């Protein structure tokens, strides 16, 4: 299901620029030790991300929210920095053939505060049929808040203050933060960001799965696939992730 071909990184295949068998074997042993330590944390629950793929209890709300967005809007704009955007952007790429014209809802990701990008979005997207998904684990990410303030102001000025609550959803931790306060002030829907999983690792949480489901992916299958990779990683000797971890070639290691 998941394979990692490293043959062209080894000395036997590409010569002196590749890793020698001895160096690779030594590095693989260290990688396998790391896998054992991770497995211990998986079993004792101290690394929640490794248990996430097996979880299903949180998927129904993601599917319901995605269906509501797809039914009522023609564009979903995800606003978030780093992992708050990249997870969804990566997964939604799986749903689209870049060489065909896509029907249905369009997805956009605002992951920097370049004013030209923001202005082009506002000139292009019809706000009456646009949903904005504001993503910040802490709820205090400065760039995300800056975008949120701009977008809320635009929606309020064009469609009225009451429209804001219907055009914005926030994903953030359930604690006091600037984003929580903004959401409360405008009556925005708020979805809980998993408190045990950092933003950059959040692709398989609602952060990545909500845009993915809007794009048409089977998010239950995505989780099951991830769970199978995790299972094989800890069940197999010299698993694929462990074999890939020692690269690049040994002579270039510090």
Uncertain segments are none
Report the β-strand fraction as a percent range: 5-15%
Strand order of the largest sheet: 2-1-3-4-5
Average residue-wise pLDDT: 91
| Shape category | elongated
Portion of residues in helices? Answer: 40-55%
H/E element order: HHHEHEHEHHEHEHHH
What CATH architecture of the largest domain do you see? 3-Layer(aba) Sandwich
* Total of DSSP H or I helical runs spanning 4+ residues: 11
Query: Can you tell me the CATH superfamily of the largest domain?
Result: Glucose-6-phosphate isomerase like protein, domain 1
Class of secondary structure makeup: alpha/beta
Please report the first level of CATH classification, the CATH class of the largest domain: Alpha Beta
Counting DSSP E segments of at least 2 residues, the number of strands comes to: 5
Query: Major sheet, described briefly?
Result: 5 strands, parallel
Q: Please compute the radius of gyration using only Cα atoms.
A: 21 Å
Question: What is the number of domains?
Answer: 2
Distance between the termini: 32 Å
Q: Which fold name is given in CATH as the topology of the largest domain?
A: Rossmann fold
Give short descriptive properties of this protein.
single chain; 254 residues; alpha/beta; Rossmann fold; five-stranded parallel sheet; 5 strands; 50% helix; elongated
């Amino acid at each position: 299901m998941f394979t990692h071909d490293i043959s062209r990184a080894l000395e036997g295949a590409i010569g002196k620029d590749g890793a020698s068998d001895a160096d690779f074997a030594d590095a693989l042993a260290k990688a396998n030790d790391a896998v054992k330590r991770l497995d211990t944390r998986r079993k004792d629950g101290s690394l929640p991300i490794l248990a996430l793929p097996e979880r299903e209890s949180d998927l129904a709300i993601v599917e319901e929210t995605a269906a509501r967005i797809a039914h009522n809007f023609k564009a979903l704009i995800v606003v978030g920095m780093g992992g708050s955007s990249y997870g969804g952007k990566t997964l939604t790429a799986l749903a689209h053939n870049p060489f065909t014209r896509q029907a249905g809802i369009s997805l956009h990701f605002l992951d920097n505060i370049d004013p030209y990008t923001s202005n082009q979005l506002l000139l292009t997207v019809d706000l009456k049929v646009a949903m904005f998904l504001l993503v910040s684990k802490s709820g205090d990410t400065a760039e995300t808040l800056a975008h949120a303030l701009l977008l809320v102001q635009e929606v309020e000025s064009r469609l009225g203050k009451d429209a804001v609550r219907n055009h914005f959803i926030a994903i953030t931790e359930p604690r006091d933060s600037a984003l929580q306060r903004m959401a409360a002030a405008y009556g925005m829907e708020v979805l809980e960001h998993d408190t045990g999983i950092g933003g950059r690792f959040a692709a398989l949480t609602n952060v990545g799965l909500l845009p993915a489901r809007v794009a048409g992916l089977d998010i239950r299958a995505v989780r099951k696939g991830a769970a199978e990779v995790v299972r094989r990683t800890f069940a197999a000797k010299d698993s694929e992730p462990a074999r890939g971890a020692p690269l690049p070639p040994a002579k270039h290691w510090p």
